[in-house]
């Protein structure tokens, strides 16, 4: 993203530093004889690379941090989305976990439930707490303990290669003339048919079922098309095995035969489908966000206009979008000095008046704080801000979710390969998910 495409709000973030920041600045190691401390920060590529170099921006953060905290040495280690999760598992098992991690709720909250993290309650002021929506706090807490400090967010949704529709003269089939861009499954199917007929070299839509990666895209796609939920509102049981959701999955299975959906979805992962999109070979992709839009820009193989869209619903009702949420956590490695140093690093990244807004923009995301808007002079980001009204509680906060998600793709594979009907597959998933929820709750009560 070029600097020219960004309009910064000069005062909003400058005024939103937390009480922790003010306390930290008043007790800056520049003005004290605090004992030096060394911490390790592991980071997925949450920030866009500078000059094509992964980790270069993070090093700039650390350099700026050390101007205020010269007695805190931060060792950075960049990890990938492919191998990072396993590397973290090994580190945790061998008691060599990093001190600080920038990740997402799916893993962080699971660690919190296992008592592996240090609570962050003392670094969250009332001002910050009120300025972040309950839906995001639910993803950041276990009980009344805050284990993840929310930083950047964006609703997960679809994206369309608008350039394809411009080329075939069918842009009017997209709901872009509606402020909220909501649309029906019937309207969506009509758009897919236009691609099939007028641009046969382009695959109309994507789907995948190879692995758990990107599961939020498939579950939200089916749930919205079927006007259903993945789990019940209180996350006590599966809710995706409705007749409408089964019809949505049946539609996907049939669509793969009718050349409306990418063939071979059983053997495709989320990254494979997004790669087809970035190559300009796919009209619609189902796992996107403002964050991914920014991260994907340098990876496009051809130039095209990627536009954000909500998932279509059966009756045109408001969609339910899960939020992407990025935030930071601290592993409790038994060293209070390291924990406090980690809190200072987190607070600096999220709230420093001079660098916080720059950090947010480098993630390509929106602020987790509702009062901070207008960071980008870009129509798609403005739409992403509007689409926050469609955000719903994600199932990732459910008891046993780490196990629940492992049952999802095998059942999708059965439906796609004809080994089970859509309803049978969803019923089987629901049964296994309910068992996992019951088991997790029992284990939690036993602690």
From TrEMBL:
- SUPFAM superfamilies noted in UniProt: Periplasmic binding protein-like II
In Swiss-Prot or TrEMBL terms, this protein is called Extracellular solute-binding protein
Q: Which species expresses this protein natively? A: Paenibacillus lutrae
Superkingdom is Bacteria
Q: Does the keyword 4Fe-4S apply?
A: no
InterPro entries, alphabetized: Bact_solute-bd_prot1, SBP
Keyword terms: Cell membrane, Lipoprotein, Membrane, Palmitate, Signal
Q: Which residues, by range, are in coiled-coil regions?
A: none
